[in-house]
Amino acid sequence: MAESLSIPTDVSKEQKYKALLPQVEGLLSYEEDLQANQANLCAVLKEAFDFLWVGFYRLENNQLILGPFQGPIACTSIPIGRGVCGVAAEKQETLIVPNVDEFEGHIACSSLSKSEIVLPVFKDEELIGVLDIDSIDLDTFDPIDQQYLEHMLQFL
Q1: Contact by Cβ (8 Å): 100, 116
Q2: Backbone phi, psi, residue 11, to 5°
Q3: In order along the chain (156 residues), what is the average pLDDT of each group of 10 residues?
Q4: 13-153, CATH topology level
């Protein structure tokens, strides 16, 4: 089990993700508990990229319910189809929002959040929740984030 991360500095975002992938795989392959792995993945991403908020919402009775996270206090439940998380869950696809103020129906859990990426989480091809990541900067997320985050989610 990995007890610390080796996070390269002064490298591109893609190089940082590439360095983290084998570490995340090793960390998550050691533990079978989904919640523990989600918690550790949140910690890795928060530490490596200093995002404002990184967390999971689990799907329960057509609602997204707050799960493991790192960052400020969060919304505890989000209806499917509402906000970026709810829409990503409804569409079952990754959403990248460069400016949350321009996303109709955005739920502002924190006024500090300026951009967001939300990725659906599947188990046996069934949606079980979403991974939500917020940044204090506009236009933080792009297809590089999507590619590597989706890869990391496969380790869960």
Answers
A1: yes
A2: -130, 165
A3: 80 97 94 96 97 98 97 95 96 97 82 94 96 97 98 96
A4: Beta-Lactamase (3.30.450)
